[in-house]
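Teaching soon. Invent one.


***
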Amino acid sequence: MVLPREAALHLRAGRAHRAPEPVAPELAPVTEHAARTVDATAAGQAFAALTTVEELLGGWETAGPLVLRAGGLSVRDLKRTAAVLDTTEQAAAFWAELAYAAGLLASDGEVDERYAPTPAYDDWLLLPPEQRWARLAAAWLPATRTPGLAGEKDAKGRTLSALGPDLDRAQAPEVRRRVLDLLAELPAGASVPEETLLTRLRWERPPRTEAEDPRARLARWALAEAELLGVTSRGALAGHGRALLADAAGAARALAPLLPEPLDHVLLQADLTAVAPGPLRRPLAQTLAVLADIESKGGATVYRFTPESVRRALDAGRTAADLHAFLAAHALSLCV
């Protein structure tokens, strides 16, 4: 029997929902952080994101991983990439997908198809850091790709591959945007527990069953990715993250004064290491990466000189005199 909408609603009164909730759940309890601290830590993570993407694509310039016949990265290549980046496989999948979404990574189209940086990557490297970050963030926000699915099984029991064809989810952009919009409703520097956000999302779009809530998974991934990218910090939306909701150019302007100034020197030590106390200027970082091996990362990067690394520099066309001149020009002090 077909009834007018008003009559059907009247007959179902009190039985349409398990528990009537006419008012949206509050975003509480709120944890207050200093807005300046949130912005600074998020900017530091944003700079780290740029370094990670450069390290990923720099390593794939000469020997990128093979593209699987069905598309995507093999499990072995994803593990190897995670080891090189010193991160988890889930995070490695995110960085690869982010570079792909930003147009910096694609298949080379050769017979033995491999992933490689695109010509746009070279142009991206020439941009100021804040603009490079804004391009990544602007590609992430509307992307339908869900790297969180990488490694899971599909309905036929096949493993879903990072960069593969089965990671698109149409809901992802809407959920990602809604999560950031909810965080933007809070005061600057404020955060709420993850479950509070999920409760609000469930109220706005109730799942069909208690066991089925794909939006909750997408929201959790969105929160984790926002932290990795430096859009948020400590669960709070950074100032440049708020600007990103309006446009990428505004996000770049908000981020620019928060980024560290690249250095043109390193500290040489008697144990055959060089310490970079901060981010290095590109020519210095590129040359040092050939001359030495990265031993540890963090607030300061430690490079170690080994016979193999020096041989690598000589094989690249550098002479012994070039290497001595380079170190003399960029060694601020010698620690003995």
